[in-house]
Design the sequence.
């Protein structure tokens, strides 16, 4: 039976009235979760109806923009105070549901059968099996540390989105323009911290609050992507933006960002694209000469300029034991190197001595032995949980089994990147997302990047964006091959003679 338009309108109006009354009662009682969810769903329906991009692409784009621009502040905002679901987990849950529904509708798997997908799935399964045992002993702490693994789900979401070139370009530009926005927002944050911390807030939580080393990492990513955009379009402003982001990155205290940018430049050079390294070198020399000349004009030593600070940071990278002496601005760099080396050694030694095959588990305090050795007087006050190196974290949490699976992920990523930088092409079909993902991974080897949503969501999204076109091309080639086989079989059948055929030959 089909309802008439009048009865359909009455039915919808009745349901809407009941829902509105229920939401009004919730708001009157101070509960905002269901009203916020209903508002979000309505907004999503409106947005989807007025623009061509999928809801999954919009969710991923919003998460990427939030974590790059909002950084640590955005990462702490939950949907409701009574329901502490953070943005990354919300996007992962909703996006995962959309992905599975779409894959079920199309009768396909949510992953692909290439080396990167398979190795990543093996690593995630190993981590999931490990946390099932750990959650009984450590409870919520195990689930919190397990974020290292489940954030990799963003890879499959982004890979699915990137099968559509238009959606993939949209998501990549969300990353690029968010990094470019740091050129204006970061100086404002440094100049007016009270406004961002105390005024621009959501339920008392700053909407934008930068973690200095992580914002430096995003500036390195933006510098690489902006240069690749310059290569594609040949528009000089993109080159200036690339150099500007690299220069602003040097004003942060992050040394891992310098290494990340250098590795990205190395990947470009491996593909015969040396101009990025040359542009950085030339602009750096010009800036250094200008600052030193200005210092001489003011009768100051060059050691009082930012040039000397950057010089000492570069030297400190090659000083793992902290044996050099540094000026006041960089005095902590040598001590910070020792801090990392002692923690890495303590975590590896404890893992090998305790359970080298499957690790110490999620929820285990990786800082306990380190704090006893390095900070015995402040053992109770030390709150950091990750040893500032994702490789050490993976080995300590998951042992040799998980570490081997993670190395397989990195090996497949390296092979795919090599193919991309050698083949050239546009910023989307070739090297851009791969190189940007490598920059974040290198930074994760010296800081807490992939253990939290700010860096992990962006990294896994970039990796999925990089692999998505490869998957789409492979599927298209398979479809063409299948179609050609069908055509050949059809032609062969049509040419088969209808009568008897005499076959001669030797008996």
Sequence:
């Amino acid at each position: 039976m089909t309802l008439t338009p009048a009865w359909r309108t009455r039915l919808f109006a009745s349901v809407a009235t009941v829902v509105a009354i229920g939401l009004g009662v919730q708001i009157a009682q101070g509960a905002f979760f269901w009203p916020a969810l209903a508002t979000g769903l309505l907004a999503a329906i409106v947005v989807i109806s007025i623009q061509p991009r999928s809801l999954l692409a919009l969710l991923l784009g919003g998460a990427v923009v939030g974590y790059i621009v909002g950084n640590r502040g955005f990462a702490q905002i939950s949907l409701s105070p009574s329901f502490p679901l953070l943005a990354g987990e919300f996007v992962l849950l909703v996006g995962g549901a959309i992905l599975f529904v779409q894959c079920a509708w199309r009768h396909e798997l949510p992953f692909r059968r290439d080396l990167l997908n398979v190795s990543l799935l093996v690593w995630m399964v190993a981590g999931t099996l490990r946390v099932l045992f750990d959650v009984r002993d450590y409870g919520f702490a195990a689930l919190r540390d397990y974020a290292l693994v489940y954030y990799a789900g963003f890879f499959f979401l982004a890979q699915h989105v990137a099968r559509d070139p238009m959606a993939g370009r949209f998501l990549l530009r969300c990353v690029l323009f968010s990094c470019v926005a740091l050129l204006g927002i970061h100086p404002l944050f440094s100049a007016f911290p009270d406004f961002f911390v105390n005024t621009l807030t959501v339920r008392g939580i700053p909407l934008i609050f930068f973690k200095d080393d992580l914002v430096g990492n995003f500036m390195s990513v933006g510098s690489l992507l902006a240069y690749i955009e310059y290569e594609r379009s040949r528009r000089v402003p993109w080159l200036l933006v690339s150099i500007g982001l690299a220069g602003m990155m040097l004003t942060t205290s992050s040394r891992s960002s310098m290494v990340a940018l250098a590795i990205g430049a190395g990947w470009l050079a491996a593909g015969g694209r040396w101009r990025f390294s040359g542009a950085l070198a030339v602009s750096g020399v010009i800036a250094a000469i200008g600052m030193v000349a200005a210092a001489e004009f003011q009768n100051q030593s060059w050691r009082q300029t930012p040039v000397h600070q950057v010089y000492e940071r570069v030297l400190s990278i090659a000083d793992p034991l902290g044996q050099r002496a540094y000026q006041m601005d960089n005095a902590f760099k040598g001590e910070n190197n020792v801090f990392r080396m002692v923690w890495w050694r303590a975590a590896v030694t404890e893992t090998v001595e305790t359970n080298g095959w499957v690790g110490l588990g999620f929820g285990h305090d990786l800082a306990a032995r380190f704090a006893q050795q390095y900070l015995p007087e402040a053992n109770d006050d030390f709150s950091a949980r990750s040893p500032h190196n994702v490789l050490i974290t993976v080995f300590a949490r998951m042992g040799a089994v998980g570490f081997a699976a993670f190395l397989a992920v990195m090996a497949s990523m390296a092979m795919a990147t090599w193919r991309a930088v050698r083949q050239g092409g546009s910023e989307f079909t070739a090297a851009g997302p791969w190189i940007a993902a490598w920059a974040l991974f290198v930074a994760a080897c010296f800081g807490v990047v992939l253990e939290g949503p700010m860096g992990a969501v962006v990294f896994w999204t970039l990796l999925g964006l990089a692999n998505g076109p490869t998957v789409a091309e492979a599927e298209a080639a398979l479809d063409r091959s299948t179609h050609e086989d069908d055509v050949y079989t059809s032609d062969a059948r049509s040419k088969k003679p209808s009568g008897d055929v005499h076959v001669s030959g030797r008996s």
The radius of gyration is 27 Å.
